[in-house]
Amino acid sequence: MTQEAVGQGTRPSVSDAERVTSQLRQAIVAGDFAPRQRLVETDLIEMFDASRGAVRAALATLTVEGLVERVRNRGARVRAVDLDEALEIVEVRAALESLCAARAAERIDDAGVERLRAIGEVMREAVDAGEGEAYAQANRDLHQAVMDISGAKVAPDVVMRLRAQNVRYRIRLAMQPHRPATSLPEHLEIVEAVCAREPERAANAMRTHLNSVYQATRDYFAERG
Question: How far is it, in rounded angstroms, from Cα 166 to Cα 146?
């Protein structure tokens, strides 16, 4: 069956559509596509070795998630988030992730303590070595670990989508040379609070960190007019 035939009404396999959705989502989150960059179906078909139907299904899903937008007579493109929306996203993340941090502190076991402390050590080493990429990865790993340990079912997916929408701002902040050293103590306090099994302290630590992200985002773009 040709790709054109698929595009004319044959439904793509669920696995193919899910695969393209996941790969395209990851590419957008990683910054491989710039904000407002057009997402041309024929290019995506070739890039992901997929059917037209799978690509269209992926674009539809990511439109619902807020990563892609449809423009009249122009097709699909990566949705750009303005500063006001970026700040609101951080506020919502702070509410959700502070809740997850508190629950993680209530539920953490010895394996969870070991996992968090190991990530904290990676973050320390990355800052000492000036390895921004390693620090950024450990940052993502820490936030994910806290959500995993919390046992939350809904919040992790919501936070993942919010982080994806805010990817451009997170990347720009992460590129600032001083940012890892500034945020390291905030992350280590999250680790210590959760590992100490102190829910209120853990929630406050997460909220303090994301409030710092909020202010850093505002300051960064204010400096650039």
Answer: 20
First to last CA, the chain: 53
* pLDDT in the model for residue 3: 46
The set of residues, in sequence order, having a beta carbon less than 8 Å from that of 187 and lying 6+ positions away, is 120, 123, 139, 142, 209
Half-sphere exposure (Cβ direction) of 134: Cα atoms closer than 13 Å: 13
Q: CA 88, CA 155: separation in Å to the nearest integer?
A: 16
**8 Å CB contact between 55 and 41:** yes
What residues does CATH 1.10.10.10 cover in the chain?
A: 3-78
Banded model confidence at residue 114, pLDDT cuts 50, 70, 90: very high
* Residues in Cβ contact with 107 at an 8 Å cutoff, skipping those fewer than 6 apart: 149, 150, 151
Highest mean pLDDT among 15-19, 148-152, 215-219: 148-152
> CATH 1.20.120.530 occupies which residues in the chain?
83-223
Q: Which CATH number fits domain 3-78: 1.10.520.10, 2.60.40.10, 3.40.50.2000, 1.10.10.10?
A: 1.10.10.10
Per-residue DSSP letter, 204:
H
pLDDT at residue 6 above 50?
no
pLDDT, tens digit, 9 for 90 and up, residues 155-204: 998 998 888 777 666 656 665 667 888 999 999 999 999 999 999 999 99
In this structure, CATH architecture of domain 83-223: Up-down Bundle (1.20)
